[in-house]
């Protein structure tokens, strides 16, 4: 089944060119199917690119998904037009009366800033608190994962001596988890960040467990044992050329960036990058939608709060 999006969303044409099944709101309303309601809190400055990346993965599923884009009301975007934001996005104040089956909180290129100095931090804290009682499963990505671990469990982020950038191998730490069902013993995921979360800090919190990790990039997928919260420190959603664009941007700024690891053939920045994570990216999002959301969320989405107080999310 498809993702349900507005017919004039710019991402629609890009997704259809990739043969991703999308459905306009009009057609979706004529189907007698209860779709999953997913909120996408998009904190990235390049919002349209992030929309395409995540919708591509959410759309490759047999489950019908209804997307609500949410933006930070307390932040003025410098890279996305106000027209686009007002047409396709809601503010948290406009949706906080609703329940959602799932929520995704994206990363943001601000990880070197203290959390409290981010202009929308208070608003994000309110969203995270809201999600604990009104969203069945919340997926935090990269800086979003660091923000979630900090606010929900008091885990600090640590500044790295240099930017971590590249495609890194990961191993599964808990083979019985449904979230990683079908994964190979070793899988690859892009990372692009200046900060990290220490493994020992996660292990010190009984409510958390590490599902996958990298010898270089550290804990990559962390789950809460008592809720539907998941924290991914990398970027399964990245396009083939995303790290290349970031590398060239930093190079043009005179930052002398290191070449992303395991990314360019023969470590040659003039060569086309090779994708080694796409299959596992689709599998990860399919498993999240299926096992952590669809199989467990109530048919009546308004009863999520009561169910969350009664039961923990399935393994």
Commentary on this structure:
The protein is globular. Strands 1, 2, 3, 4, 5, 6, 7, 8, 9, 10, 11 and 12 form a twelve-stranded mixed β-sheet that branches. Helices cover 32% and strands 25% of the residues. By secondary structure, the protein is α/β, with parallel strands linked by helices. About 2% of the residues have low confidence. Helix 1 crosses helix 3. Strand 11 and strand 12 form a beta hairpin. It is built from eleven helices and twelve strands. The protein has one domain: 3-Layer(aba) Sandwich (Rossmann fold).
Mean pLDDT over the full residue set: 89
Quaternary? single chain
CATH superfamily: Class I glutamine amidotransferase (GATase) domain
User: Can you count the beta strands?
Assistant: 12
* Count of all domains: 1
Biggest sheet layout = 12 strands, mixed
Q: Strand-and-helix sequence, N→C?
A: EHEHEHEHEHEHEHEEHEEEHHH
Q: What structural category arises from helix and sheet content?
A: alpha/beta
The name of the CATH topology is Rossmann fold
The top-level CATH class is Alpha Beta
In percent, how much strand structure appears in the residues?
25-35%
**Stretches with pLDDT under 50, minimum 5 residues:** 27-32
The helix content, as a percent range, equals: 25-40%
Tell me the distance between the termini: 25 Å
In CATH, the architecture is 3-Layer(aba) Sandwich
Rounded to an integer in angstroms, the radius of gyration calculated over CA atoms is 19 Å
Instruction: Supply the number of helical segments.
Output: 11
Shape: globular
């Amino acid at each position: 089944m498809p993702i349900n999006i507005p017919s004039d969303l710019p991402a629609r044409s890009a997704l259809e060119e990739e043969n991703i099944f999308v459905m306009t709101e009009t057609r979706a309303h004529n189907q007698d199917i209860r779709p999953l309601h997913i909120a996408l809190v998009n904190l990235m400055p390049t919002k349209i690119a992030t929309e395409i990346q995540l919708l591509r993965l959410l759309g490759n599923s047999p489950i019908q998904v209804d997307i609500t884009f949410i933006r930070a009301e307390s932040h003025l975007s410098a890279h996305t037009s106000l027209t686009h934001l007002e047409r396709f996005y809601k503010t948290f104040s406009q949706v906080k009366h609703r329940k959602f089956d799932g929520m995704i909180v994206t990363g943001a290129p601000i990880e070197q800033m203290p959390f409290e100095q981010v202009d929308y931090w208070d608003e994000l804290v309110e969203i995270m608190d809201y999600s604990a009682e009104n969203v069945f499963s919340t997926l935090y990505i990269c800086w979003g994962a660091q923000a979630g671990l900090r606010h929900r469990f008091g885990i600090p982020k640590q500044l790295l001596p240099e930017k971590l950038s590249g495609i890194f191998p990961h191993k599964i730490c808990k083979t019985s988890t449904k979230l990683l069902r079908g994964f190979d013993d070793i899988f690859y995921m892009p990372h692009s960040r200046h900060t990290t979360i220490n493994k020992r800090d996660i292990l010190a919190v009984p409510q958390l467990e590490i599902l996958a990790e990298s010898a270089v990039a550290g804990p990559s997928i962390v789950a809460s044992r008592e809720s539907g919260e998941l924290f991914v420190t990398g970027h399964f959603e990245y396009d083939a050329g995303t790290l290349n664009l970031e590398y060239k941007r930093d190079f043009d700024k005179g930052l002398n960036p290191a070449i992303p690891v395991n990314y360019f053939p023969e470590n040659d920045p003039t060569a086309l990058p090779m994708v080694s994570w796409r299959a596992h990216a689709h599998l990860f999002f399919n498993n999240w939608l299926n096992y952590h959301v669809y199989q467990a969320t109530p048919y009546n989405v308004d009863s999520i709060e009561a169910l969350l107080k009664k039961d923990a999310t399935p393994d």
